[in-house]
């Protein structure tokens, strides 16, 4: 998969050199390119922002550097692939594991990291001629720009690419894989600072352990994220059960 990130702070993306994503890049599983938006300006001050039409606080990112950067990137798109342009924004659709899987199925992802009050809206419309365009939010809070959101999304998507995570089974058992939160985990020692572990985990009975973990997933999800329970597909749970 090819990933391009356009930003005025390329150094923010240095984290993509380390850990699993860094290794995936070295192994040729992920082809990541980070671009400085200022390299696509044509004035001597390398200006990327201007005042908003209609007035108001802050500055807006000028459209032309975005057009020039995106044109250059679309020329480098893998043959036959229509790139997905992800625009991190608190005004976007909220990112989740389902979206991460959708992104992982694409050949070419491009992240347009805005700063200030955002990017001139016409860029999104213009870009839709050659990109699928999707504004995406990391959650209901405001960051200073799209870089941290792009980092989070590249990591969530990258680890779904076959070969990036060493043991693919860990992807099956983690939070959100089946719509529920992950069960609690424990390691040695079995007694620590006055606290033991659930005895079933020492029983060697794999069916009982699986049942215990599944129950814990439901208890934890109900306590922390009851909103998730409404959308999971449990064949044994009828509509009447759900309503109860
Ligand atoms: N840029 C600023 N806030 C953001 C958020 N919550 N998600 C994605 N991009 C953002």
- Approximate helicity band: 25-40%
Q: Structurally, how many domains make up the residues?
A: 2
Mean pLDDT: 94
Instruction: Estimate the global geometry from the Cα principal axes.
Output: elongated
Going by CATH, the homologous superfamily of the largest domain would be SPOUT methyltransferase, trefoil knot domain
Q: What is the CATH fold-level name of the largest domain?
A: Alpha/beta knot
Cofactors and ligands present? Answer: adenine
Largest β sheet strand count, sense and barrel closure: 5 strands, parallel
Estimated radius of gyration = 22 Å
Pick out its properties.
tRNA (guanine-N(1)-)-methyltransferase, Alpha/beta knot, 33% helix, 244 residues, Trp Operon Repressor, Chain A, 5-stranded parallel beta sheet, two-stranded antiparallel sheet, single chain, binds adenine, alpha/beta
Structural features, described:
By secondary structure, this protein is α/β, with parallel strands linked by helices. The protein has two domains: 2-158, SPOUT methyltransferase, trefoil knot domain (Alpha/beta knot, 3-Layer(aba) Sandwich); 179-243, Orthogonal Bundle (Trp Operon Repressor, Chain A), CATH 1.10.1270.20. Helices cover 33% and strands 16% of the residues. It is built from nine helices and seven strands. It has helices at 19-26, 63-75, 97-104, 122-127, 147-158, 169-173, 206-224, 226-229, 239-243; strands spanning 2-7, 31-36, 49-50, 60-61, 84-94, 108-112, 132-137. The strands form two sheets. A five-stranded parallel sheet has the order 2-1-6-5-7. The chain is elongated. Adenine is lined by residues 88-90, 137-139, 141-143, 145-146, 149. This is tRNA (guanine-N(1)-)-methyltransferase. S-adenosyl-L-methionine binds at residues 114, 138-143.
